[in-house]
Amino acid sequence: MIRLALVAALLAAPAYAAEKKEKSCKYQGQVMAAVQQARLDKIKQADVAQTILDSEPVWPEQYNKAIPQLTAHVYSLRKRDLRNNDFGALLEQQCLANWDQIQNMKKQLQSN
């Protein structure tokens, strides 16, 4: 799950530092929760992104970049695990816990 939090943060989080980690991690958790709900609602994997976008989500547009990667991860999980866990909350917690590491990796990637 830590690797997933890192991927989501690198893809979705804006580069400017003014955004607080709590807000960014909250949005990432919301994206994950939307993908999880789509799977539980039996939305076809190929239709997840459009279904979520059609619902007019409340997070900033740049977070939509993480939808395909999160979808691939969520659709690889067993439905039993999806029914028994709140992956949105888990991703938000992982993001908060690993924020400094994620920011350092983003800086390294930007300098290359």
What does this protein structure show overall?
The protein is mainly alpha-helical. It contains 7 helices and no strands. It has helices at 2-12, 21-40, 48-54, 67-74, 79-84, 87-97, 99-111. Helix 1 crosses helix 6. The two termini are 26 Å apart.
Draw up the topology in text.
Layout: H1 2-12, H2 21-40, H3 48-54, H4 67-74, H5 79-84, H6 87-97, H7 99-111
Q: Helix/strand/pairing class, anyone? A: mainly alpha
- Biggest beta sheet attributes: none
Model regions low in confidence, pLDDT < 50 over at least 5 residues = none
Compute the gyration radius: what is it? 14 Å
Q: How many E-type strands? A: 0
Q: Note the overall shape.
A: globular
Count helical runs: 7
How confident overall, as mean pLDDT? 85
Strand content: under 5%
In short:
By secondary structure, this protein is mainly alpha-helical. The protein has helices at residues 2-12, 21-40, 48-54, 67-74, 79-84, 87-97, 99-111.
List keywords for this structure.
112 residues, mainly alpha, 7 helices, 68% helix
